[in-house]
């Protein structure tokens, strides 16, 4: 993400999303009642045939929308910002939806820019400098290709191998299976880190094939053993924190490790708090070292107050994405939890 303009007097910041991750950051940055400006398309004034409005072409224009709702459409690579038109050449007061894609600038004017907003922008800028990390979780019959993004894990493809046997026409062909996985990887991996994982020896065979036939894919390749394959194997490697420094630096791995630490503390009755009342009491006492907040909870005044208190007591806050397993675990605890300096009574 790039910061194109910032005006402290008007509370305006203009941003340019450059990746799908940036659109997710923007989803958590734009709040209800913000005023956002972007270029969009809307029907022009109907001055001609009133009976044939379908003939009216959409015109490109810049509109200012007072935000009512924000939706992140990962599958469509687009951010939807719904609201009413407050500034623009026409239709003031009417509803409109801004469809923000990668490479489309947006200006945001807030009543107040809070610490978590600036933290979000810093994270987006920092993440743009880091490469994506791709995974192939493979066993004898199935391979899953996925990538670690800022908002969680994105699954790209699943390749299934004919296992052979009486009910199949042909014997299993490992070479064809590995070649199919390799061809899929050639389409999406271009020098980024790649981790091959799984419970058996197929991952080593795939690693050898990639090094021989696809050096551009295997430039930053590592092989890790896991007890499971599929997406479960990728979650396993994230929880264990194995895979080297490059994996440790990813946001999804950090959030996963913190949630593992939290559940370890819960399991032994240690230094933890979860739920609004417990975490608020810990924040009031200055007992929180790390505050974990689900991204969907950020737009509440109670969470905003806790963030301020944690910062005042030199604690850290981590915003956890609701789009991967760590977020779902945090949601089961009420969407807010904390690791503590000392045990609360």
Structure report:
- This protein has 345 residues and is of the alpha+beta class.
- The protein folds into three domains: 2-127, Roll (SH3 type barrels); 133-249, Nucleotidyltransferase, domain 5, CATH 3.30.420; 254-340, Ribosomal protein L30/S12 (60s Ribosomal Protein L30, Chain: A, 2-Layer Sandwich).
- It is built from ten helices and 16 strands.
- The strands form three sheets. A seven-stranded antiparallel β-sheet has the order 1-2-7-3-4-5-6. It has a five-stranded mixed β-sheet with strand order 10-9-8-11-12, with helices on both faces.
- Helix 4 links the parallel strand 11 and strand 12.
- It is flat, with a radius of gyration of 24 Å.
How are the secondary structure elements laid out?
Blueprint: E1 2-7, E2 12-16, H1 20-29, E3 35-43, E4 58-73, E5 78-87, E6 95-100, E7 106-109, H2 115-127, E8 133-138, E9 142-149, E10 152-160, H3 174-188, E11 194-198, H4 202-213, E12 221-225, H5 230-240, H6 245-248, H7 251-267, E13 272-274, H8 276-284, E14 288-294, H9 301-312, E15 316-320, H10 325-332, E16 336-340
Parallel strand pairs: 8-11, 11-12, 14-15
Antiparallel strand pairs: 1-2, 2-7, 3-4, 3-7, 4-5, 5-6, 8-9, 9-10, 13-16, 14-16
């Amino acid at each position: 993400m790039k910061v194109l303009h910032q005006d402290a007097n008007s509370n305006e910041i203009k941003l340019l999303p450059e990746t799908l991750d940036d659109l997710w950051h923007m989803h958590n940055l734009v709040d209800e009642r913000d005023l956002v400006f972007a270029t969009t398309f809307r029907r022009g004034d109907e001055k001609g045939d009133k009976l044939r409005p379908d003939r009216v072409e959409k015109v490109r224009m810049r509109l200012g929308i007072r935000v009512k709702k924000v939706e992140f459409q990962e599958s469509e690579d687009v951010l939807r910002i719904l609201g009413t038109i407050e500034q623009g050449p026409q239709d003031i007061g009417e509803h409109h939806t801004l469809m923000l894609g990668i490479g489309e600038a947006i200006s945001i004017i807030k009543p107040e820019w809070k610490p978590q907003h600036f933290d979000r922008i810093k994270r987006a800028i920092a993440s743009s400098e880091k490469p994506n990390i791709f995974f192939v979780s493979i066993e004898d019959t199935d391979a899953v290709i996925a990538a670690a993004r800022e908002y969680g894990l994105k699954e790209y493809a699943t390749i299934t191998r004919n296992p052979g046997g009486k009910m199949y026409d042909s014997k299993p062909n490992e070479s064809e299976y590995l070649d199919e996985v390799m061809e899929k990887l050639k389409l999406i991996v271009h020098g980024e880190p790649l981790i091959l994982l799984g419970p058996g020896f197929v991952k080593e065979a795939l690693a050898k094939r990639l090094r021989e036939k696809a050096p551009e894919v295997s430039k930053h390749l590592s092989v890790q053993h896991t007890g499971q394959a599929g997406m479960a194997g990728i979650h396993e490697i994230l929880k264990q924190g194995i895979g080297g420094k490059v994996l440790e630096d990813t946001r999804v791995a950090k959030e996963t490790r913190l949630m593992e630490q939290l559940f370890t503390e819960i399991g032994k009755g240690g230094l933890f708090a979860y739920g609004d009342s417990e975490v608020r009491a810990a924040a009031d006492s200055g007992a929180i070292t790390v505050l974990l907040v689900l991204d969907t909870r950020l737009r509440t005044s109670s969470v905003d107050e806790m963030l301020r208190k944690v910062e005042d007591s030199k604690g850290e806050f981590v915003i956890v994405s609701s789009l991967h397993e760590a977020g779902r675990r945090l949601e089961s605890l009420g969407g807010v939890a904390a690791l503590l300096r000392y045990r609360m009574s």
